[in-house]
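Hi P.,

Sorry for the delay on this. The queue was packed all week, but I finally got your sequence through. Input first:
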Amino acid sequence: MKSLLFFFLVLFSIPSFSQEKALPYYLEKAQANSPLLKDLSNQLKTNSLDSLLNKAAYKPQINGNLFTNYAPVVNGFGYDTTLSNGQTVSGLVGVNKRIISKSTLNSQAESFKLLKDALLLNKKIAKKDLNKAVIAQYIAASGSAEQITYNQKMQALLQEEAALLKKLTQNAIYKQTDYLIFLATLKQQELQVLQLKQQYQNDLGVLNYLSGETDTTFVRLQSPNISLTVKPATEKSVFLKQFEVDSLKISNQNKLIDNAYKPSISLLGDAGYLSTLTYEAHKNFGLSVGLGLSIPIYDGHQKWLQHQKNEAAFATNLAYKSNFNKQYQQQLLMLNQQLKQTVAVENQLQSQLQIADALIEANKKLLLSGDAQITDFVIAIGNVISINNSIAQTKINKLQLINEINYWSTNE
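Then the structure:
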């Protein structure tokens, strides 16, 4: 009963856990505080507004213009009234409407759609990158917490056995030097627990930093619930979709180039008052209409050169896509292979732990009768601690590999 009470006192020693938090909490905080995600969201809003501005530019443009001019002639000196009209007053409302072909409108609409698609992909990848970093740090921190719990348990065991060995040493069953060797092991374990607590606190600090939070509270982390996510067979990788969007952008640019060399028509019109005030000025209200036509004839082969640039960009994009796809497949093969190796190592460590635990239990019984060597008991405890720490690190490595595989193989 005393040993159990002592264990709980050690477990909740300073610094203590004030509350418990889970992985979703940190993911939500990181996404809410990310300036990059906010920037991309604002870029999406800006793109929608740019699309509306582009549509508005092709609607009739109506302007009101007021103008007055007086060119005096004094003693025969002044502007030729044939040119200056002497004086002019105008107040006109003008209308200008560009006639745009349907193919041009469609190409421009496609430009904004492709830009939106690219921004959505960038936002999704940015979110994946952020989640991956937060999950990786959460795994590291929770792994440190698990090591603290186990090493505190071993510390409590050593302290319990130290009290027993002290009595046995006082009864001359064991040498004083043997007891001091065991005591040194206990002190080393206490130092190990202290260092793990410091490491855990630092890991929590980094986790809060990645989440955009300012917090130094020593919280308890729930065990991370992370497993391999199965990707649907029909789902394309978000990383490969980037190349598809880039390819579509280039094709759309070629359409925009072709549309820019098509004849363009503008309808013009105005209505209002225009007069020189020299004859029946009150009758000079009227209107006018006009038609503008622009036909590209020769530009020094700029159209051909722009198409050549796009052909080079398309070839470059295709080369990057092909290379990325090969590396992408190889990356997943390597990660899955490493995961299998890590699981095999974990299973081997678990089997070693069973033997090491059994050896400790046997030594504990022999210590009571004085038939065990303290050095052997110390070695056995050291082996168990080492194996458990290796298991904890292997679990961390396994979860980190799962996190990495999910990052590359899924779009979430």
